[in-house]
Amino acid sequence: MNTLQLETYKIAFQDTAYIELNKLIKSQSYSSLFILVDSNTHEFCSKFLSEKIEADVNIEWIEIEPGEEHKTIQTCNEIWKTLSENGADRKSLLINLGGGIVTDIGGYAASCFKRGIDFVHIPTTLLGMVDAAIGGKNGVNLDSLKNQIGIIRPPKLVMVDVGYLATLPQEEMRSGLAEMLKHGLIANAEDFFAFEDLSQFQVEKLPELIRDSIKVKTKIAEEDPFENGLRMALNFGHTLGHAIESYHMESSEKAKLLHGEAVAIGMILALKLSVEVLEFNSTKCDKASQVIKTYFKTVVFSKHDITNIKTYLKHDKKNSAGNINFVLLEDIGQPKINCKVSDDQIKKAFAYYKSLS
């Protein structure tokens, strides 16, 4: 597949990605290389990457603990200490090998260390490939609140090698699929409904579907790099999705949800809200919701849960002047930002989600 040349960085695929990485290392004459991994990617992915890198400088590995609970400023502090103790300078390169948590943390750590060193993302999860590593957003959570601390700064290169997906459990694949479904809903109905019938899905089409999904995000992100307007469309399903994810992360009585699992619920809720607020076609709402439900387990929400989830909405990054702003659909491929939603409409959306089970 051809490399995507964006305004400030490249996205390279498969074998070409390693050629581009080695060209970058050679052309920039980096003083040292650091590779950030979590314990999972260190075990399953590091050997393969080691065999592909061509560099005459010292390479140090930095390992962090996996999991959303470690996506914190404390983890960044440990990364900064390790970089400093191992002589990293402004001409060092940080390569982030892992899922969305690793690329988010690594990008933020690199952007702040010595006021910014170069970094490369090598996402090893489907979610990382189609979403987290794309678009230049880097950051950490503030306690259980998602992505409250961060910076928008692009990597020098994003490398997409679908071979890493062979190391993933099914639930992690589904987590990434949620973002691909989102991209289809806001931009390309054909890509969305490519997943309608799992029995007809062809695995060999996955690389092209990943590339199509990446193109949706990069097109929007390049037109609005600092999320002043259009880029907010990428948050479809995320307003309530993030609130649900944060609530489950903080509650000792609830099972943790992967990002994509929470966003899948958020998208179904947003589809129903689109019917209520924008008169989105109810038949399309039902059809799209059933496609999403095909891939994700049903989560039960009590009235108490819903009340608590709504308290997290005030922290959503799209909010302004005290208003909670939603991204909804006028039609598939036609998102509308800054939509106001009533408490009663949110209750109806949760009732609709419950009815699908």
Question: What would you say this structure looks like, in words?
Answer:
Residues 62-174 form the 3-dehydroquinate synthase N-terminal domain. Catalyzes the conversion of 3-deoxy-D-arabino-heptulosonate 7-phosphate (DAHP) to dehydroquinate (DHQ). It holds the Pfam family DHQ_synthase. 48% of the residues lie in helices and 17% in strands. It is an alpha/beta fold and 357 residues long. It folds into two domains: 4-167, Rossmann fold (3-Layer(aba) Sandwich); 174-355, Dehydroquinate synthase-like - alpha domain (Dehydroquinate synthase-like, alpha domain), CATH 1.20.1090.10. The strands form three sheets. The protein has a seven-stranded mixed sheet with strand order 1-2-9-6-5-3-4, sandwiched between helices. Strands 7-8 form a two-stranded antiparallel sheet. The chain has a two-stranded antiparallel sheet with strand order 10-11. Helix 6 packs parallel to helix 7 (170-187). The chain is globular, with a radius of gyration of 20 Å. The two termini are 40 Å apart. The mean pLDDT is 94.
